[in-house]
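Lab meeting prep.
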Amino acid sequence: MVYWFGEPIRPHLERMRRSRGRGALWGAGFVLAVLLLVAGLGVSRRSGEQLQEATRALTHTREVLESLADISARMSEVESSARSFAISGKQSHLNPFYTAAKSVPPQVDELKHLLRSDPGSLESLTQIEPVITQHLKVMKDMVELGNRNLFRGFGQRGLTDEGSKLMEQIRGALSSMEKEQRARLAQQQAKLAAKTDHVALISFAGSALAGVLVLACAMATFGAVHRRRKADEKLDRLLGSMPDGLFIVNAEGKIVSSNAQAEKLFGYSDRELQGESMALLVPERFRQTQRQYYAGYFSQRSGRMPTTTLELCGLHKDGREFPIEMSTKPLALDNGSVVTSAIRDITGRKQVEKQISKLNKELELRAVELETAYKELEAFSYSVSHDLRSPLQNIDSFSQILIEDYANRLDSDGRDYVQRLRASCQHMEEIIDALLALSNMMRSELQIEAFDLSALANTVAADLKLKNPDRLVDWVIAEGLSVEGDPQLLRVVLENLFGNAWKFTANRPRARIEFGALPQSNGARTYFVRDDGAGFDMARAASLFTPFKRLHDQSEFRGTGIGLATVQRVIQRHRGKIWAEGVVDRGATFCFTLTDDGGAPNGRNHDSTPPK
């Protein structure tokens, strides 16, 4: 019993124990290798940072040396150009002098900035900087004497000696600084070389350790194969759930595989489609185009194959045709010899496009009809205005004759009737003129430009003052209101709004009319015209901008009833809005914007202070 259970079984137990020991040892070794690699990466990163720091220090020292050389060269050029001009008087020496003299102070400032972490060198530069400034001054004095042809007579020896002395000091100081920087450069180069060797050694060790890890990872590949198989199965399920028919096509245009949606679209199973040409899925008239399409697509295989989309007509297995959209792109395989074509039924989209096209044609027809009606209306308005104006002028003329020649035959009532008749004719003519002006204004093209709206407001106000200079009106017009718009049309706006304010404050012993702007939260401005006149009832505000809708009796305040309608048309043409706020016998405020993103009635634009 001991022999049977002891001797035969013991080797198996030993092998299992050794196998487990090897597995544990391999796992520990792998963990240790990973830890060593991480540590090596940390050391490598630190060494890399030190290498970068040494490289930056070396580059900084080279920049300092270049700056010292530039300053020295510029100073020599300043001295040479100044002396050459002072002696020869040639203007060609002036440009180099001024260019060099102008560049020296910024170069000194730049060098001071570079030396901000080097106190010793910075102190040396600070000490020599006044000498550089003095040298530049001496050279400028030399040039000024040369400009007046006085250099040889007055300042040649003194300025030359002083400039040479200063230049020697400058060269000595710059040379000393340069020696220090070059010594530092040599040290930094040696340090950089040592760091480079250190980093190379660490990189080699890291590469070796990484190789060990790669070998270890290779042993895990067998498990990845199993996971890949599961991923492929998941991909098959995903392709089966796609809403588009998906086809894998080779370079000959033959179908390699298809998904379930492809069968729903065309009626062929995956087995029926394998090995068939993609041309099978389109009518005969498109098959040559289909073959050329795939041939051209695969001919670009040497470069990066693009993703393309093509609209065609699909052919169902039962012979039914329907519109399709096909998108083709390369499949991510090693040989790149196949592509995927996703095909979608776009019957619904084509129907929508057809409806949109039909609507567009109807809109074009409506636009033509509208333009024709507009022209006919325009001709009609001119014809009516002419036909109305002629009899009105006759009535007005004959009424005037009655007053002038037959006044002694009419009693007071008769003369009053004739006067009223004349007033009605004149008012009718004013209405006709206003309608024609409104029609012309709506036809004219906008001439947008930037201009001073405040200046235009002052001009309109001045015109009103001339009509009735005896009235006491306090005008308050904000300055500096610049806008972009049509100056002529915006003048019409101000004339109507100012005219209304002038008219509705006529009963005030001393009136106030104000024009200004209110800032909006989005940066736009709301302009306003405010008065302390008759005002209006806000319940009737909706009728303000309707032609011929008047809120006051004609006998109380004369007008055509078209002015505010004209104002609204102009503001709308500028993509703006207009509204009004008022209180009966306490004035009114008309607000407007000139853009489509500013202003709205807010209940605070109207000053309800009682009139004075």
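Slide two material, second protein:
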Amino acid sequence: MLQERVPDLSRRLSDFVEPDRVRREVYTDPAIFELEMQRIHERVWIYCGHESQIPKAGDYYTVQIGRQPMVMVRAADGDVNVLYNRCPHRGNLMVGDRYGNSGEFFRCSYHAWTFHHDGRLRNIPMMESGYAGTPYGKDHPDCSMKRAARVERYRGFVFASLAQEGLSLKEFLGKAIVAFDDMCDRAPGGEVEVVPICFRVIQRSNWKIFLENQLDALHPSVTHQSTGRAAHEVEKEIEKKTGHAPLSYHMLSAFATVTIDKWDNFQTLNYPHGHCILTGYMGLRPRDPDTLAYEKTLVDAYGQKRMEEILGVNIHHVLIYPGLSVQSPLQQLRAVRPLGVDRTLTEIWHFRLKGAPEAIYRRSLAYYNLVNSPSTLVNADDLENFWKCHQGLSSEGGDWVSFARHFGRDIAKGDVVETAANCGTSEAPMRNQMKAWAQYMKS
């Protein structure tokens, strides 16, 4: 059935996306989802992890790229490889744990085939007696673990592409590379390291609904208003009693105090390949002793002028299409792993700035727990909307999804589209993502 429908879909896909709206089937049709896996997620650069997740030789971490189970592993020479998590003998998963250490080599738990950390066959039991006279042996490519076609790293962040040809990682990221520069530059040592605890959330909705929400500057003041209002009431009570309000309450109360008109003062920058940036850094730079001590470490490392440049970067969110959302000022990263047309895994990671004071780490950790963890009201608000959106899109209540807010006011500057002044709540990021989606799906 699927093989019969896909060619027909290929001819019709151009009719599914218009400049200011898309068909609901883009989110709900299983055949379209299969095409997305082939033409987007198993072709472009996909985030695998950070090299600090696998510090020692033999350390590995599993990751999903499209429909493919993969394993990121540190080799003895320090290189990072990304392999298909599959034994070439009978197809057994090479590792069943999410992460661990394989020792000096991988060993299949089924028939004890062993492999080097770059995937090359090391040994087959009974190689001499069992495979004599056959083409199978150490030099046969089908006897080694298959490697991802391309693997590249940028400032410790590891990406892989399953396509043999295509843009380099830097070419693909373009201006969105600022997400990693901004995060790492904020560390006095110029590097970050992963915080081992990763939040994992299964969303009962299509993967694109999550990505569209990330740069939707209108929804925070609507969806999260009740959470922000409750936090603001407590914040005011504490300030009344003590004379100051804890910064942690501001992280939540901002959802009520940063109103829609204030969000409109922000701007989105929309780039090729579907990447987008939402400006308007949250301003978590109070003049308290912790911040002043942190600034001193940056001055010592970079000088006063460079310190101001680093802390003055005007970013709230960077979206790297089709599967990454980065909040670089707070060292947060969310990776999107589509599992099905109506099922999406998000991995929520936090990073520590190497060389920064412990108090600064604790501040960003508070945001990680209060705003981005699975247990927060903020996340629960979003998850409910995602599920409700998918349920509504699966109905016959209408055929189109509208992205028309501030349509026609975008400012094109070469291959970059900027939102106009006082149009920060524009749906330009959604239009940009769907434009990229249509281009990928034509492949």
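Talking points for slide two:
Residues 225-242 form the longest helix (18 residues).
The longest strand covers residues 343-353.
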